[in-house]
Amino acid sequence: MSLPYFKFFPNDWLGSQNIACMTPAEEGAYIHLLALAWNSSDCTLPDNDEMLAQLSRLNGSWLISSQKIRDRFTFKDGKLFPKKLHGLFKDAADVSDSKKIGAGERWDKEKYFESELVCYSQLIKDQKWIDEQQKFNPNLDILLSLEKAHVQFWGTEAGFEYTKKQKSKTKNWKRTFENALSMKSNQVWKPRDLQSQSTIDDLYGKNS
Questions:
Q1: 64 within some domain
Q2: Do residues 162 and 190 both lie within one domain?
């Protein structure tokens, strides 16, 4: 099945002479068969009156009404193809396939690692940005923390697989690395002799 829904055109349906000639039961059976066809793998129905009687839910009345409904289908290779719906089905399948291809291109592995590395390389050379991060994260070794985030996660297969599962079409790498600095798993602190006393007390305790 390509999509869980199909386009319905009320004006065409209500203005159709063929539909107008159907009884309410026949009209209901017809739309039910269209839904079943759409849910099949190729938008078809079996050309078998016994099965169609059950599928349409007309049961014993099927043979009386079958010709009106069959006229709305094309017969080929033992199957019934709904004339207009089959074309919509093929179009929907094409759209679905293009979306799958688009998703694959969105998270192409080579492009992922290239974009991650480019951003990481730019950030570690951006002194203004580094200084800003240092201001917000006193005594944190910004460069080593960024390197840890890059080497141990975002620049690895694990980072790629994590990103591929996300729904967003793009990734803000700059914001990603900013957030990485606040994660304990990435944080590398400066040696104690380079830290302020207040930070040393917070990290190691006042009696250390």
A1: yes
A2: yes
Q: Look up the domain containing 66 and give its range.
A: 10-94
The pTM of this model reads: 0.46
Q: Which two tokens stand for residue 199?
A: 């930070």
Amino acid symbol at 203 = L
Residue 68 belongs to domain with CATH number: 1.10.10
Cα–Cα dist 146/89, whole Å: 49
Closest CA to 173 of 103, 100, 124, 104: 124
Instruction: Please report which residue ranges of the chain form alpha helices under DSSP H.
Output: 10-15, 17-20, 24-38, 49-56, 62-70, 83-106, 109-123, 127-136, 142-149, 157-164, 173-180, 197-204
pLDDT in tens, 114-138: 999 999 999 999 999 999 999 999 9
